[in-house]
Design goal:
83 residues, alpha+beta, 2 helices, YfhL-like, 4Fe4S_Fe-S-bd, metal-binding, YfhL family 4Fe-4S dicluster ferredoxin
Length: 83
């Protein structure tokens, strides 16, 4: 699954620079995660870095975008052009 940022976001700016895929950006009101770029840090780290640094714990899995670890790894390969 891709991750998502909920309305509890306080715009603290710590998640955006942690994302290795540049999937996080400032939205109209809060930060947003582009699901086509989010791999939950699969291929980069053992755990999603944005979740690790979020002070308000507002970055859960997005239940509307279900992806297996294999699918996330494939997305990582496409994003990084690693084969």
């Amino acid at each position: 699954m891709a991750l998502m940022i909920t309305d509890e976001c306080i715009n603290c700016d710590v998640c955006e620079p942690e994302c290795p895929n540049e999937a996080i950006s400032q939205g109209v009101e809060i930060y947003e995660i582009n699901p086509s770029k989010c791999t939950e840090c699969v291929g980069h780290f053992d755990e999603p870095q944005c979740q690790q640094v979020c002070p308000v714990d507002c970055i859960p899995l997005n239940p509307e975008i279900v992806e297996s670890k294999d699918e996330l790894m494939e997305k990582y390969y496409k994003l990084t052009e690693v084969k």
